[in-house]
Amino acid sequence: MERKLRVGIVGGTGMVGQRFVTLLAEHPWFEVAAIAASERSAGKTYLEAVADRWSMAGPVPEAIGKIRVQNAAAVEAVCEGVDFVFCAVDMSKDETRALEERYARAETPVVSNNSAHRFTPDVPMLVPEINPEHLAIIPLQRARLGVKRGFIAVKPNCSIQSYVPPLHMLREFGPTRVNVCTYQAISGAGKTFKDWPEMIDNVIPFIKGEEEKSEQEPLKIWGRIEGNAIVNTAEPVISAQCIRVPVADGHLAAVSVAFARKPGRSEILERWAAFKGRPQELKLPSAPEQFIKYFEEENRPQTKLDRDFDKGMGITVGRLREDPLFDYKFVALSHNTLRGAAGGGVLTAELLAAEGYIAAK
Prior knowledge:
Layout: E1 5-10, H1 15-24, E2 30-37, H2 46-49, H3 62-65, E3 70-71, H4 75-80, E4 84-87, H5 93-105, E5 110-112, H6 138-145, E6 152-154, H7 164-168, E7 175-184, H8 210-221, E8 224-226, E9 229-231, E10 237-244, E11 251-259, H9 265-274, H10 278-282, E12 292-295, H11 303-306, E13 315-322, E14 328-334, H12 338-354
GO biological process, one term: methionine biosynthetic process
GO molecular function, one term: NADP binding
Keywords: NADP, Oxidoreductase
């Protein structure tokens, strides 16, 4: 790459935006050139804007802290200085949908962490190792928007990042039914224990909208392009329960799955160990060297011990055993703000850049 691509972070003051900042501070391909947020943060330096709500472990990166925050609604002004943007705004779906389209129509690619466009038929929803072929829909989206280089690509909900990858590697056996229960960290709600003390010593058996996303989003990821749309696959049928637990980071899933053709246990383990996706082939900077790691220990993966596997971008799996109601059951773990949110967004942007969809203006 001749020079680093200039990136803007729209919604840069929130928890996911802060995670983008930490991941991009030393990125080999991208540099933060603009940060945009709500009108109340506009005009402040980034350091001033996040002074009382910085949630990351280390300090605000010095160079980024000096960037003056822009108003996210001033689309043309933000787009002037960037090649593409990440979007992680805290707005209603209708407002987010409209804002992201404004950026795309301003000829600026959008890599979104939001849910507003996940079911827009010509917007790819990517787990880069699983469905990179969906990038082929982008020219059709550009034609609809009437643009040459702008487009929107989204990453899926953090709740599905743990269990969809290991299921994907078993698609040849025809999974027909999946029952999953996710145990989700409070950072998935943009919270820490400091500002959500009610979660200490507590479990909440409801996360608004999460179960619907967990049941439907994998079907688009496993779907196919027909005409000018991505059409969902019909199977497997997924039943999900999503539970908030007193954990800072990391979403754990307990999964049971039935197959049209039941594989042997060794066949499952072989496929998990051998799989490499397009990010691994391209050696993208944020790609985990090993996408899936299986633990033979009966008490692994554990959220606190294993969420940071391969810088939080790998998936850990364990407790594979036969299920009396389905065929097999297992547990899987992902880091929800790395693989599930900002890290997944950065990896998606790396794939888009490597495949020629994002380039310097």
